[in-house]
């Protein structure tokens, strides 16, 4: 593909910087202010169908799976429907029980990932209802699904997904809001989420202005042989995605853990040579996250916090603009894309085409 680089040296950099516009596109034409909800006609799911859903199961691979984890949390929080995400490949090989009251959602940037497509086909064979949350219009998964929504991130060329991840998370927020408003989510909460969604593009731009500071931090972390990413509940899938991004593009080994699991093992690894990135949103778990940082500091570990306010326990903090608690994970992922990018750049990696990887895995 040869799209205009618009003055950027790599597609990854270009695509990171396209995110404010991309988020604007996924929101466009979908918000209904009168009823504090959203219109998602392509779902082919009327209010009665939506109310009949007893469970949501989200399937995807890699970054799309991580977006699905964030989506599952949003659906549980806003619609109070039990939801979880699972790698599509695991799902298809474990002979999963397919339940008619579960809404299945396949997530894919390319819409061509074989493991996801095969999972969708298996589900349909068993009579399940499957929606697609897909970027590429008319792709195999979009065609195979019973309905769904396009994420409108625009063409993503870099093998490593950035803007599509962010847009998929926003698409999930729209779906969660929609499902919530067919159930018990109040008009007031619907309105609160809509206001939060509308703030995202400007907050993304504000976030990207910190690129130079993040570049300086990345120059330090580029020396690490391994990094630990921790988060709790809303922050955990953010940590997992950040860890994947760093691995893919810089080849630095990284591992993500729920902050609460540190004491059950990974604390043994902490020493000055293993830096930790802590996702610390300003929500009801802030104190718990501070305690985890204290544990790491007590063992001379270095900490980079991604937070809504300066963190005393951390060596550095990247301060992210605050949104509604449920939407915070969307913005917290963005500085970590920049961290991965600048770490890879400092190490001279082939950023748009990391070794051993393909943009979409269309084979078994
Ligand atoms: C993303 O940075 C990865 N290269 C990879 O994990 C990707 O998300 C995965 O292969 C799924 O692709 P898809 O979204 O096109 O289905």
TrEMBL record:
It is an enzyme of class 2 (transferase). It is found in: Cytoplasm. Signal peptide: none annotated. Keywords: Aminotransferase, Cytoplasm, Glutamine amidotransferase, Repeat, Transferase. Its EC number is 2.6.1.16. The active site is at 359 (for fru-6p isomerization activity). One of its GO terms (molecular function) is glutamine-fructose-6-phosphate transaminase (isomerizing) activity. Residues 45-191, 217-354 form the SIS domain. Homodimer. This is Glutamine--fructose-6-phosphate aminotransferase [isomerizing]. The gene is glmS. The chain holds residues 242 to 605 of 605 of the full protein.
């Amino acid at each position: 593909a040869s799209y205009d680089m618009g003055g950027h040296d790599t597609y990854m950099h270009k695509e990171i910087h396209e995110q404010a516009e991309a988020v604007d596109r996924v929101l466009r034409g979908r918000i209904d202010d009168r009823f504090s909800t959203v219109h998602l006609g392509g779902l082919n799911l009327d209010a009665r169908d939506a109310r009949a859903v007893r469970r949501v199961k989200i399937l995807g691979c890699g970054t799309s799976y991580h977006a699905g984890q964030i989506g599952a949390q949003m659906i549980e929080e806003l619609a109070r429907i039990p939801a979880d995400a699972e790698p599509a490949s695991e799902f298809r090989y474990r002979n999963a029980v397919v339940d008619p009251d579960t809404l299945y959602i396949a997530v894919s940037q390319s819409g061509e990932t074989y493991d996801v497509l095969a999972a969708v086909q298996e589900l349909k064979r068993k009579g399940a209802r499957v929606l697609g949350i897909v970027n590429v219009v008319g792709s195999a998964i979009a065609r195979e699904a019973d309905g769904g929504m396009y994420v409108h991130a625009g063409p993503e060329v870099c093998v490593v997904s950035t803007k599509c991840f962010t847009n998929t998370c926003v698409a999930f927020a729209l779906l969660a809001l929609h499902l919530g408003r067919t159930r018990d989510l109040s008009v007031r909460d619907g309105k609160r989420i809509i206001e939060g969604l509308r703030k995202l593009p400007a907050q993304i731009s504000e976030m990207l202005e910190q690129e130079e500071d993040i570049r300086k931090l990345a120059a330090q972390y580029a020396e690490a042989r391994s990094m630990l990413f921790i988060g709790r509940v809303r922050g955990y899938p953010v940590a997992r995605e950040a860890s994947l991004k760093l691995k893919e593009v810089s080849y630095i080994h990284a591992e993500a853990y729920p902050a609460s699991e540190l004491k059950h093992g990974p604390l043994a690894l902490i020493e000055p040579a293993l830096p930790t990135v802590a996702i610390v949103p300003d929500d009801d778990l802030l104190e718990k996250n501070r305690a985890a940082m204290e544990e790491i500091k007590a063992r001379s570990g270095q900490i980079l916090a991604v937070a809504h306010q300066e963190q005393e326990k951390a060596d550095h903090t990247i301060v992210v603009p605050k949104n509604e608690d449920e939407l915070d994970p969307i913005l917290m992922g963005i500085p970590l894309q920049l961290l991965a990018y600048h770490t890879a750049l400092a190490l001279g990696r082939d950023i748009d085409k990391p070794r051993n990887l393909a943009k979409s895995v269309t084979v078994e």
